[in-house]
Amino acid sequence: MIKILFLTIFCLIKSLSTLRNPLLFLSFDGLQSAKFEEFLIQNPNSNFSRIIRNGLKSDYLKPSTPTFTFPNHYTLITGLYPESNGIVNNVIYDPNYKEKGALKDNFDLKWYNSTEPIFYTAKKQGLKTASSFWISNNVWPRQPDIFLAFNRNYDPFLRIDELINWYIKFNLDFACMYFDEPDLTGHIYGPESNEYKQKIVFMDSVLGYLLNELERINILKKLNLIVASDHGMAQLDENQFIYLRDYVDLNLIDFDKSVIAIVSSIYPKTQDKLGELYEKLAKIPHMKVYLKNDIPKELHYSNNERIGPIVVFSDEGYRLMDKNYTYIDYGAHGYDANLTSMRAVFMAKGPNLRSGSVKPFENVNIYPLMCKLLEIKCLPNNASEVFSPDHLYNKYIQYECLQSDLCGGWADRLKGILSSYAFALITDRSLTIKLTKGCNLREILDPNEVDWNYEKTENKNLSETSINMGYDFGYSDKFKTDISMFTNLKNIDLIRVRGPMMFANGLRDNQNLTEKIKSLGYEPSKFHTAFQIHKWYSKLFKMNKKMKEKYDFYLKKMKPSSDTKLICIQIRKSDPGDKETDVFPETRFFDFVNSTFLNTSDTHKYTIFVASSKDYVKLDAKRYFKDNRVVYVDNSSFHIDVNVNECDQIENVLLEFNLMQNCDIGVVSHSGFGMLALLNRPDPFKDFYVFTKPYNDSMKMSNEEFISNWLNIATFVKFDKLGSVYFAP
Ligand SMILES: *[C@@H]1O[C@H](CO)[C@@H](O)[C@H](O)[C@H]1NC(C)=O
Ligand SMILES: *[C@@H]1O[C@H](CO)[C@@H](O)[C@H](O)[C@H]1NC(C)=O
Ligand SMILES: *[C@@H]1O[C@H](CO)[C@@H](O)[C@H](O)[C@H]1NC(C)=O
Ligand SMILES: *[C@@H]1O[C@H](CO)[C@@H](O)[C@H](O)[C@H]1NC(C)=O
Ligand SMILES: *[C@@H]1O[C@H](CO)[C@@H](O)[C@H](O)[C@H]1NC(C)=O
Ligand SMILES: *[C@@H]1O[C@H](CO)[C@@H](O)[C@H](O)[C@H]1NC(C)=O
Ligand SMILES: *[C@@H]1O[C@H](CO)[C@@H](O)[C@H](O)[C@H]1NC(C)=O
Ligand SMILES: *[C@@H]1O[C@H](CO)[C@@H](O)[C@H](O)[C@H]1NC(C)=O
Ligand SMILES: *[C@@H]1O[C@H](CO)[C@@H](O)[C@H](O)[C@H]1NC(C)=O
Ligand SMILES: *[C@@H]1O[C@H](CO)[C@@H](O)[C@H](O)[C@H]1NC(C)=O
Ligand SMILES: *[C@@H]1O[C@H](CO)[C@@H](O)[C@H](O)[C@H]1NC(C)=O
What we know:
The protein is α/β, with parallel strands linked by helices and 729 residues long. Helix content is 31%, strand content 19%. The strands form eight sheets. Strands 2, 3, 6, 7, 8, 9, 17, 18 and 19 form a nine-stranded mixed beta sheet that branches. A six-stranded mixed beta sheet has the order 28-27-26-29-30-31, with helices on both faces. α6 runs parallel beside α8 (194-216) and α21 crosses α22. 47% of the residues are buried. The structure holds 2-acetamido-2-deoxy-beta-D-glucopyranose (11 copies). Residues 1-18 form the signal peptide. Keywords: Signal. InterPro entries: Alkaline_phosphatase_core_sf, Phosphodiest/P_Trfase. GO terms for molecular function: hydrolase activity. It holds the Pfam family Phosphodiest.
């Protein structure tokens, strides 16, 4: 069935999108990146991994100075360094107000009015916003529409229930949510402790509960989710205190104004003592002391009246103290933002976020990302260009097989989908699938890592192009030498592709794409459906519950015990050519299997699975292999393109397609279905024979010659490497 390639491209007018997806921003206080990475390795199926898989992640997030909770949480929602957002410490002395306040107890606007938080900015621009437990969310009047004030005794699961209620009641555009763990545990036991480790595991289950709830209320799929932490955590030796009284005459210090902590703001009792006090402090070991004007610029920690005339930064592990410390604890933060221990985490996933990694970046940059996702106007901020349009998806590739389209059979469709997926990977697009011909696959398969989310692209006002590939045997060659057709479409939001494309192997051979393919984690020569089908198929599709039950039922019959050898024979009677001419003599398949594999003494261990477009072939097999168990799926699997409206048929095709992944030995027709099914085994080329002709001379033959001489030419060719069979997987 070799048909003429046809290709049409037509562009529609570009216009702006109007529908925004909701954004949820989560913070896990004190989640240190190194410990988090360890957790991920030890818990590959964690709930955090659900975000990271197909999400956007950085190795770490650099916190702002000082690496305390309040300053950094305000940075996260304002995009401003603490010196510019006014929250310069957890406890602040403001010389204008002549007042010192601990932010945990002070909710007067005057402490927060240097700027406004995103939930308020977005609300003013007409969005529905909410915040749970986040710093300043209860500061009147710069509040979101709905909020809960911080309360340490409030169970995290109940907070989630509350958030879920908000989602149900209101059409929330933006929400942020703060969790005070694993910080609390980190302070008590230190990041190296088992307790801290266990707390990350616990917070993972909290996250899992949230994700499950969001899924239950049908929000998760359309949600852009960002997860971050404010800072890391350093392990302490309990004795590493620096007591001021041991070094300095305390009468030199104005304690009403000074804030003594890991990062301290120190005022002299009288201005004329500044020099003397600085000299004394500067001699104390294990800390860095600066006059305000000498603080290194890259710390962005001087340009604010709330920062005192002398600033002290304790070295990692040390704590400057003005009072005797009576607790025993093993963790702290506030240290140099460049330290590994202070590194925070960043991950994000959602329909408007591409997957992959983003270089470690400063936490001021999350704010404009959120503005972009929310499609609101940002306030001035300190972000640099970390997030480019490349990280934000509004770009899709959509594989389409609609009622009136020429789609081919299941293998053709699958090749189109997998090639589109390869293309999506290469071009950082989101893959969507719209497959309604024959049967809507959504009734059989569950979405996996890729959603059946084509409705979303339909609701949006996107610029788009359709590419109709038609039947494309050999089309992949075009991509070996030229990918301009796709690079030229870079700015198009939605590329609809129709027809059985097989260009993934062409992409593989294009030198210009080698680096990109490697960066995706593939060996370029294996960026090919023959090697990737198992991986990609299981990413894209999984059987739904009903299909899985059927599958399990047949698999038990096919492999009754672990030492069963399963031989699969797939005979498509009408191939080649379009007419149902029954050209393939099934006995040649049976004789080949009998003479090649059943000439041993342990034949009782062999089960034979037969798939065919004709039921009588299966009955013949039963008569032929008298000494073996012969298994087949009750109804024939037709070529689905012929009978377009029979959902049962695609069910059986897919059932057989999945079952054949378990074959130890495979003997198949020159048919995409059988060949792709066997290639979908973990070891694709294991004991694999195709009734066809060797690749080399088949290419020299005309279509007519090929079909008319088929029976004379075809033999059982061992398919042990790419190119050994005339077939373009
Ligand atoms: C899509 O864009 C067009 C042209 O800008 C506009 O007239 C139309 O209202 C938009 N549709 C939606 C659903 O936003
Ligand atoms: C913040 O509020 C205080 C007290 O009302 C006021 O003196 C100050 O000017 C305000 N600052 C800004 C930036 O609005
Ligand atoms: C994910 O979260 C759920 C819900 O809390 C929890 O039951 C499950 O154990 C977590 N998954 C893993 C792998 O820990
Ligand atoms: C603080 O500790 C020092 C040294 O142990 C001791 O001399 C002093 O009395 C303590 N001060 C208070 C207020 O407990
Ligand atoms: C911290 O790292 C940045 C680069 O990320 C560098 O420019 C800066 O000098 C470092 N600061 C310190 C105090 O080491
Ligand atoms: C940060 O942004 C604020 C507001 O635009 C600006 O005033 C300040 O100078 C910026 N800081 C830096 C280091 O660029
Ligand atoms: C590779 O990229 C260069 C520069 O854009 C272009 O000239 C060349 O044609 C490309 N080669 C292929 C094989 O696509
Ligand atoms: C069975 O036949 C195959 C193919 O002719 C041959 O390679 C194999 O050695 C035979 N096995 C036995 C046990 O004779
Ligand atoms: C299968 O092969 C054996 C020889 O290995 C032969 O004796 C037997 O007749 C064959 N079975 C059929 C049904 O042809
Ligand atoms: C086979 O077809 C019959 C009649 O259409 C149907 O009742 C039966 O459920 C089908 N069996 C399978 C396994 O699909
Ligand atoms: C081409 O295929 C034939 C078998 O049909 C084989 O004998 C021959 O060696 C092949 N030629 C090459 C160059 O691989």
